[in-house]
Amino acid sequence: MIKTDIIIVGAGPCGLFTVFEAGLLKMRCHFIDSLPIPGGQCAEIYPKKPIYDIPGFPEILAEDLIKNLMKQIEPFKPGFTLGERAESVEKTSDNKFIVTTNKGTQHEAPVIVIAGGLGCFEPRKPKIDNLKYFEGKGIEYIIKDPSLFHDKKIVISGGGDSALDWAIYFSKCAKEVTLVHRRSTFRGHLDSVETINKLANQGKVNLITESEVFNVEGDGNIQSVSIKSANDQVMNLKTDYWFPLFGLTPKLGPIQNWGLHLEKNAILVDTLDYSTNIEGIYAIGDVNTYPGKLKLILCGFHEASIMAQSAFNRVFPDQKKIFKYTTVMGGVKGF
Ligand code: FAD
Fold it and tell me: pTM for this structure?
């Protein structure tokens, strides 16, 4: 049994910053995350994308933000149960919680902070029979490290920002890029659509609209895809990779069975302290909802700081809390 003051479900940016705010109040934290590395969406979906709205950083890559957060919380020595999904919660007779993962690891604490973001997210997959066979062997739904695909032949499917952004990116460094979209118009930013059309005119992106990939062929690894147009014309295209980028479906997963009040797949909280309807369980970051909610990292940071003040009263019911600036405290000392 892992015992701590706060169990944080989700090691995305908002969960990570919670350790800092809790640490200043001498509360220890332990993470549970189903991903094998900390960082949430920043690490899993867009590590190389710049972020422009973190106060004090005019521009920072998502992966660097996570590195910085990890450094900032280092003095507070958080624990990590990674690669395991928080599955169930139960209450103990002395008013604590036990959270058990899908692998049976048990964690006990008086406070739970759910920072589960979009939940366990899964890509929307095209309906093709032998798709599974080529997953990880040429088919990728999330591009974590684009340098792996430099100088390769790439086919991208989709009509949203993700498909457009990656087609633009790979037009500069791949051997060949083809963008396949089933409609003639795109859903992405107008600016990106204009760039794609320009790149297509310059012959830097092979643009195939009103068409869909309907089959994948290969021998172990993907070797080609078959594309069908709206008027049933079929073509076969040799490729090293196919990226079907049709978006991600957020799934709150097992947390939705914990008895929390939910609204549209998110946890309803009281903005006084971001507490849920279950005393001792808080929800911060993308996973929560309240009037005026913005799904932004900086809003989650704010929620973490307010929540920590409230959690203190539950972790140390007999202690008086005194608010101090970190500079007044003589810096961050950790444990
Ligand atoms: P997340 O980052 O979603 O992390 C949640 C973690 O919880 C995940 O690691 C997940 O595995 C884990 N988890 C969930 N359920 C469980 C469970 N049951 N057990 C164990 N682990 C679980 N925001 C900005 O502020 N600026 C931007 O420029 C920006 N750009 C973005 C670009 C893209 C393409 C996307 C998709 C989002 C962008 N966002 C941006 C939004 C930002 O990424 C989110 O607001 C932020 O990641 C929320 O952080 P979080 O810590 O709440 O959750």
Answer: 0.74
